[in-house]
Design goal:
The protein is an alpha+beta fold and 737 residues long. It is built from 25 helices and 10 strands.
């Protein structure tokens, strides 16, 4: 057995080096959802809308400067030579096209090579007087956005190389004020925070828990066993993930504290049973300890694993991976506890001299005396907090988890405030009549309605669509004047304008219309509004389109990564809560079968539902929205807290002592002692995460530790009263019989 454990541990330990980090937004999209399927089809035709970067260059006194523009122009041209850059768009490289009697006259929109004062004035007036060009500049004109479309890749190292190359090119051409806004810059900082918190707080949890174990057990060997069991459980789980090539994302980064403290709970209950055992020898102590904790620990491991496994029914890969590997980790912890733990225990001496933390014997009598006060206080707190649940709403902000002073967050906020937005927005349109194409005026007339709504009522900035091309061609065909950047209403003018389409760079067309002309897209950018507000605006848009668009001409659908990310947060938050209810139901059935009583089933669930209700109420009253990283807290808290309840109830019900009160005193001295130890260690361990500046980690630490603290108080007050009442009623029924 020892050799086998060593080999398995060495194998998993070796594979930990293969663990990598990942934060692909697309993986959070719900599998097999109609919107996900539609987006997958859309991507095949138009590519990923999130593979972009806004390279924002700033100059305090304005972009239009004779010395600065040549540097900016050279910088922009150099970007095309960077690996993984597919296209670069900006006013610096655009050409202004004017139709004349002799043909098309083409000249730079902005003269960047030795511009004269006259050219700068003309270029500036042309740019700031046209909404197509103006959207690339900040409100003050002190910044300009260069739009880069890059290759799609999940390898963050390639992304970091691209970001570094852009910064290097900027320094080369003297561009000192640079902001990079896009998925790549956000992903990099997210992974950085996940990696830092993953390592820093894992080490902190190890040190803190070992210190508390040493303080509680006052014996190095006794403290070392549960610590090593927890550590070995982590090695096994992450070694397995490394071996299978499973990458750590925002959700799976929560696994270390979950597994560490669940395994700690198993080990502490075993150690406590060994310490309290009356056996004369180690073998007798182990036998007696196993009799007390084997079945309850098996039950807690199975129920906790099932609770996490309920997440695999949610059709989102990261959530499924969290549920699956959390369940595997829980079972690993059980196996290690009753193999490695018992092997070490068999060669370790235990003495009752070093008394460990215990619940005072007068606590039960105090509970009995204060019974109604405890009941009324509990009900009062619940009545005060339950209305807060109605205040909960599902709302997420993409960068809300980042610190307010994070440079990436500041860059995104700058793009939102000064350049119209940082988040891509996309609508797909398809021709409903197979005899028509996007370019037919009757179809384009319908697309105009969508674009006008987006520009003026939603509003979305920087909208580009097939209509944009027509407006541009109309301007080119009418002297290149800004006032002619309009949509031609008359059929004759429209057809004359359309004939200029063949002169447009096909690379620009294929980003907006398919080659067969049957499908097109409207794309733009808008500020971070939060998923709740965005959903409200989307609903108003859909209502407008349903009433005003001729569906015999076109079909339309909101799509794109922004839409799916917001949709994912909403679906995930709801599904995670549904998964929690499923877990509660399944665990309830298992406990009902184990205790063979529906009353005991209800009693077992009450101490674990109360903390969840209270935390939900607190979230609501504090105005903290439900999102993926806060919704998952409930599953984690329930999965961990239910263990102590099962141990307490199992020991109490199996105790032969006939007097219910005396029976509870004995339970407190044994299972209650272990419950108190694990609760203190887990609450302290999760509280450590409050030091994080990363929102997801901070809120997990805050609300899981709060849930565990409430669960401990309820297990020490409400649960004993429920069990004593149940036992007294059962005794009365037996005596009457």
């Amino acid at each position: 057995m020892t050799c086998l454990l060593v080999v398995i541990s060495a194998f998993f330990g070796w594979n930990i080096q293969n663990v990598t980090f990942d934060f692909e937004f697309e993986k959070f999209f719900p599998n097999n959802h109609p919107d996900s399927k539609a987006y997958a089809n859309h991507v095949k035709q138009f590519g990923y809308d999130n593979d972009y970067l806004h390279v924002i260059i700033e100059r305090k006194n304005g972009i239009f400067d004779k010395e600065f523009l040549p540097l900016a122009g050279a910088f922009e041209k150099s970007l095309n030579g960077i690996e993984d850059v597919e296209n670069v768009y900006s006013p610096l490289s655009l050409q202004h096209v004017v139709k004349s009697p002799t043909g098309l006259v083409i000249f730079p929109l902005i003269h960047t090579e030795n511009p004269t004062d006259y050219q700068l004035n003309q270029d500036s007036a042309r740019v700031f007087g046209n909404p197509l060009y103006r959207s690339a500049f900040s409100k003050t004109g002190a910044a300009m956005s260069i739009y880069i479309h890059h290759a799609h890749f999940a390898d963050q190292e390639r992304g970091e190389r691209l970001l570094k190359a852009i910064r290097d090119h900027a320094r080369k051409f003297g561009i000192t004020n640079l902001r990079l806004v896009g998925k790549l810059s956000a992903v990099g900082v997210f992974i950085s925070y996940i990696q830092n918190d993953f390592g820093k707080f894992l080490v902190g949890s190890l040190i803190l828990s070992f210190g508390l174990l040493l303080l509680i057990f006052r014996n190095l060997k006794s403290a070392l066993i549960p610590f090593l069991i927890s550590l070995l459980s982590l090695v096994w789980l992450f070694g397995l993930m490394g071996f299978l090539g499973i990458r750590i994302n925002l959700l799976s980064s929560l696994l270390p504290p979950i597994l560490f403290f669940v395994s700690m709970s198993d080990a502490v209950h075993l150690m406590n049973a060994l310490k309290k055992s009356g056996g004369a020898s180690n073998s007798e102590k182990i036998k007696e300890a196993l009799r007390v904790v084997w079945i309850p620990t098996l039950l807690t491991s199975v129920t906790t694993a099932i609770g996490f496994l309920s997440l695999i029914w949610i059709n989102t890969e990261p959530v499924q991976m969290l549920g699956l590997f959390a369940a595997i980790g829980v079972l690993f912890a059980f196996i290690i506890t009753f193999t490695f733990g018992l092997l070490v225990a068999s060669v370790t001496s235990y003495s009752s001299k070093n008394r460990i933390i215990e619940i005072p014997t007068f606590w039960v009598s105090l509970l009995i005396k204060r019974k109604w006060k405890i009941v009324l206080l509990s009900l009062g707190i619940l009545i005060a907090l339950i209305p807060g649940i109605s205040q909960l709403k599902i709302n997420s902000f993409l960068l809300d988890d980042l610190p307010e002073d994070s440079q990436v967050r500041l860059d995104f906020e700058y793009a939102d405030e000064e350049l119209g937005g940082s988040k891509p927005y996309e609508i797909r349109v398809e021709v409903a009549d197979s005899s028509l194409t996007i370019w037919d005026k009757e179809v384009m007339d319908e697309i105009v309605k969508i674009e006008e709504y987006l520009l003026h009522k939603y509003p979305i900035s920087k909208v580009q669509s097939p209509v944009t091309i027509i407006k541009y061609l109309n301007m080119a065909g009418n002297g290149g004047l800004n006032e002619n950047y309009t949509y031609p209403d008359k059929e004759k003018i429209y057809q004359r304008t359309l004939r200029l389409k063949d002169r447009i760079d096909p690379k620009r067309l294929d980003k907006l219309v398919t080659e067969d002309g049957k499908a097109g897209r409207l794309i733009g950018f808008f500020p971070e509004l939060g998923s709740y507000e965005t959903d409200q605006r989307n609903q108003k848009l859909i209502n407008y389109l349903d009433e005003n668009i001729d569906k015999e001409k076109i079909n339309y659908r909101i799509t794109g990564t922004t839409y799916l990310i917001d949709k994912s947060h909403e679906l995930l938050s709801v599904n995670l809560l549904k998964g929690l209810l499923t877990a509660i139901g399944i665990i309830g059935v298992i406990l009902g079968l184990y205790f063979k009583s529906w009353k005991l089933l209800i009693i077992s669930l009450i101490p674990n539902i109360i903390p969840l209700v209270m935390v939900a109420g607190i979230l609501g009253w504090l105005g903290i929205s439900l999102k993926m990283t806060t919704s998952i807290i409930f599953t984690i808290a329930f999965g961990i807290a239910v263990d102590d309840t099962i141990h307490m109830m199992s020991f109490y019900l199996k105790n032969p002592e006939p007097d219910p009160i005396r029976r509870m005193e004995i339970t407190f001295r044994h299972a209650g002692s272990a419950m108190l130890i694990t609760s203190i260690i887990m609450t302290a361990g999760f509280s450590l995460y409050l030091l994080s500046t990363f929102g997801a980690t901070f809120y997990m630490g805050l609300f899981v530790s709060l849930s565990l603290l409430i669960a401990m108080v309820v297990d020490l007050s409400v649960l004993p009263l429920l069990l004593i009442t149940f036992r007294k009623n059962a005794t009365k029924r037996e005596s009457n019989t």
